[in-house]
C-alpha cells in the first residue's frame, strides 16, 4: 500500500470512528446537539493534524475514543462529548482556552481549562508531581464534576492502549490508576469502568497470573453453568407465576477481585467458592413501589432456598454513598453451594453501571436537595480549604475516603449519618461539625460512655460530649479514618504549633536582647538542642521541652560538629509505612520482625560502591557477586526471586525492589513515577531471602515433628524460627525460612500440605 493509500485509509478510519460516536450520542436520551459535537471534532482534527500516538495511530483517534467512552459508557451529553474531543487541544497545540470560549461558550471552555490545568505542572521542590496533580484534579472537580469524569475516561483509554508504552511507564501508569483513578471511579459509581481499570492494571502488573486465572475461570465454566441452571429453574418458575418482567443471569467475578480474595485470605483458586453472582434485573410495574418489588422477589427466593442471615445487604433502603442501590442476599443452592443474588430494578442497574455520571443534574437557578455526591463534594471542598502542605500526605488523606465500605450511624435525634467502615466516635464528631470535633471530650454509644477511639458499627446511636477546654491532640491522628477529621485536626495542630513556635522565637530573641544571631551560632544552638531547623528549635523552646540558659554566652562555648545529611527517601518511607495499617495473621509481630533483611547499613562498602547512575529506560539486572547484591530488598513486601516486581531508584542511586502488588510500592508508583524502573531477577545461590510460611490444622501429638521431617526429606532447609500456637485442638504456625526463590517456597508449601492433619498452608503476604 502506497503512502497516499495509507492516508486515505486512515482518514476513512477516523471518519468511521466519528460516525460511531454520533450514533452512540443519537441513541441516547440527550437533546440532539449534533452541530456543536461536529464543530468540536473538526477543530480537534485540525489541531492534531499530523500528530501521532506512540502506537503509531493518528492522535485524533485518542480524543474520539475518550468522547465515545464519555457518551456510551458514562451516558453524558453534548457538552461533555465536545469537551472530551477538545481535552488535549490547549495542552498540545497553539489554541488557547480563549479560542475555545469564543467558539464553544463558557461551559466547554471551563471544562477544557480544568482538564488542561490538571495535566500541566508547576511544582515546588520535593513535591510529588502526581500528588500535586491530584490536588488540582479535586479542586477542579469541586467546580464541575464533568472534569473528573472526562479525566477518568481519558485514563481508561490510556489503559486500553498501554501496550505501546515501555515497561517502566506501564508500572507508573498502573500504579496511579490503582491508587487514584479506580477508587475515584468507584466513588462516583462507575462500577463497570472501575472494574475494567482494575482488570487492565492486573493484566499488565501480573501477566502470567492473569493468564493462569483466566484459563482456570474458563475451565470451570461448565461446572458453574450447571450450578446456575439447577438454581435458576425453580426461581424462574416462581417469578413467572408472579407476573414479573425481568432478566436473570450469572455474572462471574472479575479476575482482579478473585486474585485479591486469594491474596487477602491466603487461599488457592479452588477454594474461592463465590466465583459468580446471580443478578436479577426487573422492570418496575406502573403504579408499583420499586422497593416493594425488590422485597417480593426476595421473599419468593427465600421460600425456595435457605437464607444465610449474616449476608443480607439492604442497599435499597439506604443506598451506598456512590448511589448504588440493590438488595443482596446469599442462599444455599440445590448443589450445596452458597450463591449470592443481587436484586435490582432497571433504574438501579443503570446507576450501578454508570453511576452518578449518567444522572448528574446541574443546578441552574434552582435549589436541589443534597444527594450523596453533593455531600461528598462538600467534604472534598472542606479538605481543600485546609490542605496539608505535604502533597503526599494530602493524597493519602483524601484516598482514605475514596475506597471504603460504609456504615450508617444515628444521631440522638435519629438522623442518619454515613461514615466509612472503621470510623470512630471522633470521626462522627467531625461529621456533625468541626467545632464539635475540636472540643470533643468523649461519646455515648448506644447510651454507654465510650472513648473517642471507639470504632462504630452500623445502627449505633452516638451522642458526642464536648468541653471548651479540650483541643485536638496529636494522638487523635492515630485513630481517625475520615479525610475531614484528619484534615481539621492537622489544621488545628498546625495553628497550635505556630503559636508555640512564635512564643519560642520571642523567648530566644529576648535572651539575646533582640540582637541578630549569626548563622554559625544558630548551628551551635540547633546542635545543642538536637533540632533540625529553626522552626523546630523555636517549638522546643516555646513548648518548654528545653530550657534556655540564663546567659546567652553559654552558647558561644560550644563546639560545632559536622552536619549529617538526612535521606529524604528514608524519611518518606517511614512516613508511608506508618500510614499503612495491617490486620496480620497470628503472631504476625514475630513474622514482621523476622522478615527484615540483614542489609548492610548505608555508608558501608556495598552501598558506597554504587556510584554509577542507573539507566532508567533499560531493564535493570538484579545480580549477586561475592555474597553481595546490587539491589535492596524492601522489607514492606519482602519480594522473592520469581515474584512480579519493579525497581525504585532511591536518592542514592540504589535500586529498591518491591512487589508490584505492594501497597507502599503503589504509593511510590503514584508519587515518583520518573524513578520507577523495570527489573529482572537473576539466579541466586549465595544470597538467601527470608520468607514466612503460615500453616493451620488439627493439633495432634508429633505433628510439628512430622512437618519438619517432611521439609528436610530432599534438601537441608535453613529454618530461622518456628512459632506455633494452639487453641481448642486447632493449631496455627509460622515458619521463617531462608530460601533462594518463590518457587522454593511453593515446593515447601506443597510438602507441608501433604502432612495428615494440615488444613491450609500458604506463604505469608505482608
Sheet/helix structural class: alpha+beta
User: Mind telling me the CATH class of the domain at 3-205?
Assistant: Mainly Alpha
Helix content class: 40-55%
Percentage of residues in strands:
5-15%
Sheet with the most strands, sense and barrel status? 6 strands, mixed
Mean pLDDT: 80
Question: In the CATH hierarchy, what is the superfamily of the domain at 3-205?
Answer: Hypothetical protein af1432
- What shape does the CA trace take? globular
Query: Which stretches of 5+ consecutive residues score pLDDT under 50?
Result: 120-127, 360-370, 563-610
According to DSSP, the number of beta strands is 23
How far do the termini sit from each other? 55 Å
The CATH architecture of the domain at 3-205 would be Orthogonal Bundle
Radius of gyration: 30 Å
Count of runs of 4 or more consecutive helical residues: 29
**CATH topology annotation of the domain at 3-205:** Hypothetical protein af1432
Amino acid at each position: 500500500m502506497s503512502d497516499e493509500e495509507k492516508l486515505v485509509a486512515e482518514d476513512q478510519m477516523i471518519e468511521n470512528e466519528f460516525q460511531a460516536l454520533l450514533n452512540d450520542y443519537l441513541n441516547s436520551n440527550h437533546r440532539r446537539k449534533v452541530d456543536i459535537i461536529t464543530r468540536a471534532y473538526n477543530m480537534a482534527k485540525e489541531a492534531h493534524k499530523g500528530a501521532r500516538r506512540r502506537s503509531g495511530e493518528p492522535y485524533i483517534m485518542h480524543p474520539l475514543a475518550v468522547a465515545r467512552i464519555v457518551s456510551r459508557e458514562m451516558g453524558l451529553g453534548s457538552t461533555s462529548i465536545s469537551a472530551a474531543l477538545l481535552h488535549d487541544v490547549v495542552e498540545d497545540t497553539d489554541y488557547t482556552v480563549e479560542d475555545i470560549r469564543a467558539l464553544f461558550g463558557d461551559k466547554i471552555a471551563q471544562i477544557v481549562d480544568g482538564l488542561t490545568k490538571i495535566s500541566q505542572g508547576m511544582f515546588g521542590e520535593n513535591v510529588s508531581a502526581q500528588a500535586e496533580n491530584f490536588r488540582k484534579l479535586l479542586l477542579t472537580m469541586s467546580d464541575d464534576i464533568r472534569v473528573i469524569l472526562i479525566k477518568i475516561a481519558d485514563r481508561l483509554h490510556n489503559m486500553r492502549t498501554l501496550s505501546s508504552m515501555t515497561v517502566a511507564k506501564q508500572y507508573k501508569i498502573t500504579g496511579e490508576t490503582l491508587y487514584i483513578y479506580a477508587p475515584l471511579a468507584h466513588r462516583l459509581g462507575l462500577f463497570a469502568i472501575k472494574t475494567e481499570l482494575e482488570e487492565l492494571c492486573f493484566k499488565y502488573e501480573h501477566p502470567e497470573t492473569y493468564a493462569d486465572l483466566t484459563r482456570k475461570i474458563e475451565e470451570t465454566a461448565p461446572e458453574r453453568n450447571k450450578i446456575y441452571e439447577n438454581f435458576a429453574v425453580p426461581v424462574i418458575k416462581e417469578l413467572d407465576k408472579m407476573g414479573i418482567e425481568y432478566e436473570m443471569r450469572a455474572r462471574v467475578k472479575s479476575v482482579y477481585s478473585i486474585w485479591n480474595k486469594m491474596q487477602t485470605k491466603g487461599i488457592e483458586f479452588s477454594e474461592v467458592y463465590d466465583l459468580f453472582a446471580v443478578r436479577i434485573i426487573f422492570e418496575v410495574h406502573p403504579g408499583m413501589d420499586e422497593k416493594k418489588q425488590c422485597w417480593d422477589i426476595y421473599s419468593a427466593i427465600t421460600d425456595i432456598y435457605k437464607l444465610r442471615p449474616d449476608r443480607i445487604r439492604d442497599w435499597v433502603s439506604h443506598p451506598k454513598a456512590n448511589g448504588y442501590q440493590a438488595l443482596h442476599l446469599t442462599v444455599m443452592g440445590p448443589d450445596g453451594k452458597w450463591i449470592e443474588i443481587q436484586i435490582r430494578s432497571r433504574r438501579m442497574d443503570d446507576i450501578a453501571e454508570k453511576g452518578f455520571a449518567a444522572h448528574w443534574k446541574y443546578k441552574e437557578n434552582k435549589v436541589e436537595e443534597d444527594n450523596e455526591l453533593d455531600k461528598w463534594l462538600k467534604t472534598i471542598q472542606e479538605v481543600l480549604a485546609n490542605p496539608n502542605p505535604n502533597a503526599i500526605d494530602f493524597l493519602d488523606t483524601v484516598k482514605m475516603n475514596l475506597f471504603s465500605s460504609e456504615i450508617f450511624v444515628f444521631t440522638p435525634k435519629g438522623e442518619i449519618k454515613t461514615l466509612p467502615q472503621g470510623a470512630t466516635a471522633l470521626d462522627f464528631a467531625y461529621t456533625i461539625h468541626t467545632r464539635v470535633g475540636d472540643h470533643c471530650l468523649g461519646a455515648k454509644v448506644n447510651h454507654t460512655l465510650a472513648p473517642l477511639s471507639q470504632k462504630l458499627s452500623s445502627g449505633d446511636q452516638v451522642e458526642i460530649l464536648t468541653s471548651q477546654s479540650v483541643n485536638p491532640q496529636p494522638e487523635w491522628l492515630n485513630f481517625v479514618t475520615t479525610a475531614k477529621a484528619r484534615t481539621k485536626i492537622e489544621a488545628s495542630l498546625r495553628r497550635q504549633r505556630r503559636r508555640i513556635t512564635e512564643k519560642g522565637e520571642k523567648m530566644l530573641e529576648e535572651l539575646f536582647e533582640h540582637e541578630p544571631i549569626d548563622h554559625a551560632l544558630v548551628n551551635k544552638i540547633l546542635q545543642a538542642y538536637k533540632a533540625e531547623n529553626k522552626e523546630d528549635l523555636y517549638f522546643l523552646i516555646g513548648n518548654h521541652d528545653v530550657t534556655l540558659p540564663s546567659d546567652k554566652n553559654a552558647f558561644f562555648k560550644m563546639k560545632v560538629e559536622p552536619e549529617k545529611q538526612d535521606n529524604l527517601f528514608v524519611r518518606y518511607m517511614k512516613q508511608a509505612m506508618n500510614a499503612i495499617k495491617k490486620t496480620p495473621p497470628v503472631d504476625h509481630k514475630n513474622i514482621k520482625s523476622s522478615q527484615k533483611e540483614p542489609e548492610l547499613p548505608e555508608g558501608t562498602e556495598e552501598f558506597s560502591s554504587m556510584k554509577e547512575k542507573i539507566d532508567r529506560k533499560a531493564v535493570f539486572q538484579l545480580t549477586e557477586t561475592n555474597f553481595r547484591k546490587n539491589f535492596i530488598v524492601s522489607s514492606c513486601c519482602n519480594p522473592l526471586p520469581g515474584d512480579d516486581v519493579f525497581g525504585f531508584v532511591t536518592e542514592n542511586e540504589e535500586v529498591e525492589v518491591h512487589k508490584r502488588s505492594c501497597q507502599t510500592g503503589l504509593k511510590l508508583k503514584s508519587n515518583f513515577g520518573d524513578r520507577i524502573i523495570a527489573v529482572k531477577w537473576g539466579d541466586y545461590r549465595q544470597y538467601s531471602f527470608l520468607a514466612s510460611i503460615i500453616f493451620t490444622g488439627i493439633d495432634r501429638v508429633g505433628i510439628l515433628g512430622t512437618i519438619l521431617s517432611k521439609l528436610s526429606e530432599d534438601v537441608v532447609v535453613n529454618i530461622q524460627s518456628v512459632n506455633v500456637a494452639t487453641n481448642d485442638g486447632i493449631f496455627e504456625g509460622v515458619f521463617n525460612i531462608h530460601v533462594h526463590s518463590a518457587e522454593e517456597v511453593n515446593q515447601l508449601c506443597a510438602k507441608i500440605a501433604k502432612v495428615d492433619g494440615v488444613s491450609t498452608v500458604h506463604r505469608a503476604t505482608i
